[in-house]
Structure formats: C-alpha cells, structure tokens
Write a structure and sequence with these properties.
With about 325 residues, the protein is of the alpha/beta class. Helix content is about 40%, strand content about 20%. The longest helix is centred in the C-terminal third of the chain and has 24 residues.
Length: about 325
C-alpha cells in the first residue's frame, strides 16, 4: 500500500522593521517538526537591516528565500509576492512576531486534509507573548463578526481557561498565523492577487475570508495548533499607532463593506453600523484629523470600487443566508 506524501507547506512572511523579532522567529521555525517546508520572506523596505538579519539567521533546515523590496507595499502586497514566489500546496501566513510551537504546522495540516471537508483555511490557538498575567492570555481563536461590521479575534484578551477546545467552523482566521489551501487562494484571487493590494495593511485578512466564504470554502479553528503572538495593533492602542496604520484601518473598514455587503445585510446591520460610523466620523473630526483623508480616498476611487464589487458578486456561490449568519 502506497502512503501519500505529505503536502508541501510554504511559510510566507512579510517583514517591516522586524529585525528584533527575526532571531526568535527563525529559532521557532527551526524547531518545527513538519516536513516538507519552505520559507519565503518578503521585506517591505525596512530601515533596520531586516533583510540582512533574515539572510544571516534564516534556518538552514528548510529552503529559504529572502526578498527585499525597494518600497513598502504593505502586508497585502508583500503576501501576494510571497505566495507567487512559493509553490507549496498549502500556504502558511506567519508574521515575524509569532512563535509557533514545534507541532503547530502538523496540527494545521492534519485538519486541512480532513476528508469530506472543503477546507480553504485552518487557524490555530494564538497566545499573547507579552501577557502580564500568570495564566496564558488568548490572542485569537479564529475570527468572528459583529452586527457593527467589526471582525474580532475570538477570545482576544481573555485568560486561557480551556475554552474552545474543539475544532469548529469559524468565520475567518488572522493573517498573523493561518494555513491556506493554495487551491482556495487561486479560486478567490482576482487578477492573480490573493490579497487586495488596496488594503495595504489592516483588515486584509478579513477581506480574504469574505471571499473564501462567498466561494463556499470552509475556515476551521484547530485548538491543538498553538502559536505565540506579540500583537502590537489593538483597538485599545489606536492612539499609539502610526497615522498611516490608522488611515488604512479607517479606509479599509468602509472598503470591506463596499465589496461584501448585500441588501439583506444592509437591513440587518443598518442601525448598529450607522451608529458606529457616526462615532468614527466624530472621532476623526475631533481627535484623528490625519485619517480624514480616508474619506476622500474612497470617494476618488468610487468607480474602481464599484467595478470590483460587481466582479465579486458575480463570483459568489453561497446564499445570502450562509454569509449573513456569521453576523448574528
């Protein structure tokens, strides 16, 4: 009896001034027990010698490709380049600020190859690396949606007391550490772009998950796949984030809805999302003036946005009920 070979996993990472994270990141990659693996790291014009650090410290136990770009094209653009430069049947999106456990990939692949499931992505149990509490703090156990069109990491900030110990369907997975089927990524890509380059940074993972769901790909949470994550961008730290990140965050929250909100969802979420929109607008007017450019950016590109929305809706194969159930 012939035993089927394990599918190759391409670890795709995007770095930006990540030199301090890369040594421990590479150490954790060197301890991974799964095989075969390859690593493709795209550096987006870092100013802290991240490319040089990566080339020097990349683990010799797996094939590695480090590509430095002359400009910062964001997480979305960097991931598109990494996916194009790799060839594994499975693609693991993994940030430099993550620390996967040795069997992290093994558990993700075991779930991704479950027979009878049309799985497009598998996400694991992310634990905060910078937690001050004695018990581990959850960073993410999959992604969920709210009626205000927020996409939140399940359990984020809660103490890990053993909740969510069963594999289950979730709306999505964070781009920090999620395994994707290359077949699924190719199915939902537009113009050979897996992530929408217009998102640049922030919410690009949620937008991809919408496209996967709209094409009826399943996204599954696997609790045995554990990975540490030193998350920096959190809603409570908005004032500490750069003006560029806040600009993309505001722009992308409307872009996400422009691409994926249908009429039933508009009726379902009108009141809560309208209230949040007014709060966001007031906040920008009074405290975050730099982000006001997001509104003019959206208006100036309204024709391109409408054209992309039409293409996405033409490709939908799920019902409006299948998608909107995630909001309630």
């Amino acid at each position: 009896m012939t035993v089927a070979a394990s599918p190759k996993v391409s670890i795709c990472s995007v770095s930006y001034n990540s030199a301090t994270d890369l040594p421990e990141f590479f150490k954790s990659l060197g301890r991974l027990t799964y095989s075969p693996l390859e690593l493709c790291l795209i550096d987006c014009a870092s100013t802290d010698n991240s490319t040089e650090v990566a080339e020097r410290l990349a683990p010799r136990s797996l094939p590695c490709k480090v590509i430095g770009l002359p400009q910062n094209i964001g997480f979305a653009g960097g991931m598109n380049r990494a996916v194009a430069e790799s060839d594994g049947a499975l693609v693991l999106s993994l940030n430099p600020d993550t620390r996967p456990t040795p069997d992290f990939v093994d558990h993700l692949v075991a779930r991704a190859t479950t027979e009878g499931w049309r799985i497009g992505a598998v996400t694991g149990r992310l634990i905060r690396l910078d937690s001050d509490s004695q018990a581990p703090t959850i960073d993410a156990c999959g992604m969920r949606l709210t009626p205000t069109w927020r996409h939140l990491d399940r359990g984020s900030g809660a103490l890990d007391r053993g909740q969510w110990r069963t594999a289950e369907r979730v709306f999505g997975g964070t781009g920090a550490a999620t395994l994707f089927s290359r077949e699924a990524l190719e199915d939902v890509a537009l113009d050979d772009q897996v992530f929408d380059p217009d998102f640049h940074s922030y919410r690009e993972d949620a937008e991809l998950c919408f496209r996967l769901r709209e094409r009826r790909w399943e996204i599954v949470f696997e609790p045995r796949a554990i990975c540490g994550h030193r998350r920096l961008n959190l809603p409570g730290r908005r004032r500490e984030m750069s003006s560029e990140i806040n600009f993309h965050s505001l722009k992308n929250r409307y872009l996400l809805r422009a691409y994926h909100q249908d009429l039933p969802n508009f009726a379902l979420t009108l009141l809560p999302s309208l209230f949040r929109d007014l709060m966001a607008f007031g906040y920008v007017l009074t405290r975050e003036h730099d982000s006001f450019a997001a509104y003019s950016w959206l208006w100036s590109r309204r024709r391109q946005i409408i054209a992309r929305r039409r293409r996405l809706f033409e490709r939908r194969s799920c019902s409006w009920l299948e998608l909107n159930r995630w909001f309630v």
